[in-house]
Design brief:
A: 154 residues, alpha+beta, 4 helices, 56% helix, B: 235 residues
């Protein structure tokens, strides 16, 4: 009796194994057909790949922000009505050397405070160093070295 | 043969122990079936199942890919690629890049003094590029606006370096601006059959629309406000 049961189990396992093998073979055949179908749509796949790749690069490059540009825009906005920019030089996105003149100490003070205020400087400037201060033709002249966020402090 | 079978059947030892021998024989066959057939088959089921599932998933992915590709309107995509190539061309296309720079200068009321190009190509963030150095004069606000408009130019440009000095006039500044213009050759081969594809999303289409709409203005250069430094830019 046990032998009969065992033979039946063997037959069942062999039968199921055969079914699995057949279904794998069927899936492989279907897969080959699907791959052939995709190969026939190669021109469409080409345009989708090219467009997707190019758009990804366009979006990535568009997101790239120039710290020099951001710093100049910020300094232009902060200096308006307070100081007059004489020189602005950005150096590899980390340092900005700025020369400007102010009609009075109050203007310089206000400009300096705005550069140091994280709210006003939009978190772009990590340090402001006054390099020189002088007076010419009734105006205060000064040189600043600004370290932009992400740059090394001097 | 018959004699042999007869002698086995009539073997007194066999006859004596046949009650025990039959179950032992059955047990041994059961063990053999279990060890050599059932257990290997059962162990193979897991592997077969994994293989079957992976094939099924792969087939579903490929069918989804076919469904996506069937939605693709070839002509529309070609037109979209042409639009994308305006922002990021496949070649340097120096005249188009310079035209874009001149447009940005003119629309922001900056006067061009000189323009020059870097000799060799650069590689910026894995994308080919070349440098355009522009010397221009204008007010602080004009320069500020130009700097801002570079970000939204039709052809992708980025401002690499900016040096500004006070000009001879009290209100004007002289600027040396290093711009980077990007280009990227088209791929020579597409991915394999199994490689997934991603159709453009809504945000991708918005980028394309932005390029299309900004392209309208970029061609209109008000040359009256730009005294060109060189008549032939390539000299």
């Amino acid at each position: 009796m046990a032998l009969v049961v065992m033979i039946m189990i063997t037959a069942l396992t062999l039968g199921f194994g055969l079914y699995q093998d057949l279904s794998i073979k069927k899936l492989e055949e279907e897969l080959t057909q699907t791959q052939a179908q995709i190969a026939s749509l190669k021109d469409k796949e080409g345009v989708v790949t090219v467009l997707g790749g190019r758009l990804a690069k366009i979006i990535s490059l568009s997101k790239k922000e120039s710290k020099s540009a951001k710093a100049f825009i910020l300094i232009s906005d902060l200096s308006e009505g307070k100081v007059k920019i004489q020189n602005f030089a950005s150096d590899k996105d980390t340092k900005v050397r700025l020369s400007a003149e102010a009609p009075a100490v109050a203007n310089l003070d206000e400009f300096f405070a705005s550069l140091n205020d994280p709210k006003q400087n939009q978190g772009l400037i990590s340090s402001v160093k006054l390099d020189s201060l002088g007076k010419a033709k009734g105006n205060l002249t000064f040189d600043l070295v600004l370290t932009l966020t992400g740059g090394s402090k001097q | 043969m018959n004699n042999l079978l007869k002698s086995i059947k009539e073997n007194p030892i066999l006859l004596k122990y046949q009650v025990f021998l039959m179950p032992i024989f059955s047990f041994m066959i059961c063990i053999l079936l279990l060890v050599f057939l059932i257990i290997p088959q059962l162990l193979g089921f897991a592997e077969q199942n994994t293989q079957r599932e992976s094939l099924f998933v792969k087939k579903q992915q490929l069918e989804a890919k076919i469904a996506s590709l069937n939605k693709v309107n070839l002509e529309s995509y070609k037109s979209d690629i042409a639009t994308a190539l305006i922002a990021l061309p496949q070649e340097k296309d120096v005249p188009a890049a310079l035209s874009q720079v001149l447009y940005l200068l003119s629309s922001n009321r900056l006067r061009l003094n000189e323009v020059s190009l870097s000799g060799s190509d650069l590689m910026v963030d894995g994308v080919k590029a070349f440098q355009i150095r522009v010397d221009a004069t204008g007010t602080n606000s004009a320069l500020r606006n130009f700097t801002e408009s570079v970000k939204s130019s039709t052809r992708i440009l980025s401002l690499e370096k900016l040096v500004v000095t006070a000009g001879s006039s009290l209100t004007e500044l002289e600027a040396t601006i290093d711009l980077i213009a990007y280009f990227e050759p088209l791929p020579t081969a597409v991915g394999g059959v199994d490689q997934e594809i991603k159709l453009p999303t809504q945000s991708d289409l918005e980028v394309l629309n932005k390029i299309k709409s900004s392209q309208v203005g970029s061609g209109e250069i008000d040359t009256t406000t730009i005294p060109l430094g060189k008549t032939d830019l390539f000299q």
